[in-house]
From TrEMBL:
Signal peptide: none
Peptidase M20 dimerisation domain span: 170-258
Cellular component terms (Gene Ontology): cytoplasm
GO terms classed as biological process: folic acid catabolic process
InterPro entries: Amidohydrolase (IPR017439), Bact_exopeptidase_dim_dom (IPR036264), Peptidase_M20 (IPR002933), Peptidase_M20/M20A_hydrolases (IPR052030), Peptidase_M20_dimer (IPR011650), Xaa-Arg_dipeptidase (IPR017144)
GO MF annotation: an example: para-aminobenzoyl-glutamate hydrolase activity
Keywords: Hydrolase
Name this protein carries in UniProt: Peptidase M20 domain-containing protein 2
Family stated for the protein in its record: Belongs to the peptidase M20A family.
Length: 388
């Protein structure tokens, strides 16, 4: 039965290539991926999926379900299809979207025999305002047993870790005045922001080595002869796990309050973008996927790479067993977020890799549904790691 998936992939692979190429030629930015969503949704509907669009209040998000109406696990594949300004699909989300939808369709072809459900989730705006965050928050994964997403890269890597991240804005309000004639009447908001930077730089010695704190001054006054009455600083603060991150963020906020106390400015603190949690890879699920990917003929899969970025799949991995591996485009050193990367996603070789990725995802879903032992092991690992 599992071998049937290999046969089915041959019948849909030219459609998968066509869709990935179409997305490459028609890139759309996050939360504006209307045509990209439509393309994937129509493909899924042709294959008897029931689709709901605009979930969690995001117009370009969707949930597509194929239900065998027989008992069994629910497997989810996540599709991204947002592009980058100027360089289109320089992160290869045209391949992610197509591999996710393709895997869903493949698995659906054997589902009536083996039972269970398959869900394809369209998750917009990964590069900017990840829709997986509200999806994880609003219970989209409550009836899902495992969630998988596959990202293209220079080479293949197992699913690994990513940093938890908060995006914090500090808005300082002082009092303007003539900077030379009556400086004593002013309260300098820019000086307050500079003290925040100085305080954070002193904090760096006393954080764990995984912590990353990086910021800018967005607004810092209008003219040198006016005491700046407004200064806005934005920071990303990241750490390997949420507890450590929360402690560091608390310290950063206290520095900001201290800076405001020094100058007498008012301070308003906000999260200016969604917070991402660290990625917790389910190793049982990861091993299962790695073996399936090897079986499709991908020669080498490296151990996960050390990552200091943050991904919205992290939030998903805290509510359901999840993986976020990378599939190699046979181009060692190829860098994401470049035109070269985008161009590489539509070569003949990448077409073959795309079909292999969709197949390996489908095979992993098949294994979870038919192998109760490995399914239970995955669940146990999840409860130990995440609910501990
Ligand atoms: Zn990217
Ligand atoms: Zn990406």
């Amino acid at each position: 039965m599992k071998d049937l998936l290999k046969t089915y992939v041959q019948s849909i692979q030219s459609k998968l290539w066509e869709m990935s190429d179409y997305l490459y030629h028609h890139p759309e930015l996050g939360d504006q991926e209307y045509n990209s969503m439509k393309l994937l949704v129509e493909f899924l509907e042709e294959h008897d999926f029931t689709v709901e669009t605009g979930i969690v209040g995001r117009p370009t998000a969707f949930k597509a379900v194929y239900d065998s109406k027989k008992p069994g696990p629910t497997i989810a594949y996540l599709s991204e299809y947002d592009a980058l300004p100027g360089i289109g699909h320089g992160c290869g989300h045209n391949m992610i979207g197509t591999m996710g939808a393709g895997a869903g369709v493949l698995l659906s072809k054997v589902l009536d025999e083996i039972g269970g459900r398959v869900v394809v989730l369209g998750t917009p705006a990964e590069e900017t305002n990840g829709a997986k965050v509200p999806m994880a928050e609003q219970g989209i994964f409550e009836d899902i047993d495992a969630a998988m997403i596959l990202h293209p890269s220079d080479e293949s890597y197992e699913s690994g870790e990513s940093l938890a991240m908060d995006a914090i804005q500090f808005d300082f309000r002082g009092k303007s005045s003539h900077a030379a004639a009556s400086p004593e009447k002013g309260i300098n908001a820019l000086d307050t922001a500079i003290q925040l930077f100085n305080g954070i730089n002193a904090l760096r010695q006393h954080v764990t080595s995984d912590v990353r704190i990086h910021g800018i001054i967005k607004e810092g006054g209008l003219a040198a002869n006016i005491v700046p009455d407004k200064a806005v600083a934005q920071f990303y603060v990241r750490a390997k796990d949420r507890n450590n991150l929360n402690e560091v963020v608390e310290k950063v906020k206290n520095i900001a309050k201290g800076a405001a106390l020094m100058t007498g400015a008012q301070i308003y603190i906000d999260n200016y973008e969604l917070s991402y949690d660290n990625m917790v890879t389910n190793q049982t699920l990861s091993n299962l996927f790695t073996n399936n990917l090897l079986s499709t003929g991908i020669a080498e899969i490296k151990k996960s790479k050390e990552s200091y970025g943050s991904i919205d799949m992290g939030n998903v991995s805290h509510v359901v067993p999840a993986i976020h591996p990378y599939i190699g485009l046979d181009s060692p050193g190829l860098t994401a977020h470049t035109q070269e990367f985008a161009d590489t996603t539509i070569t003949e070789n990448s077409h073959n890799i795309l079909a292999k990725g969709a197949l390996a995802l489908a095979q992993t879903g098949y294994d979870l549904i038919t192998n109760k032992e490995v399914f239970e092991k995955m669940k146990e690992e999840f409860y130990e790691k995440v609910n501990a």
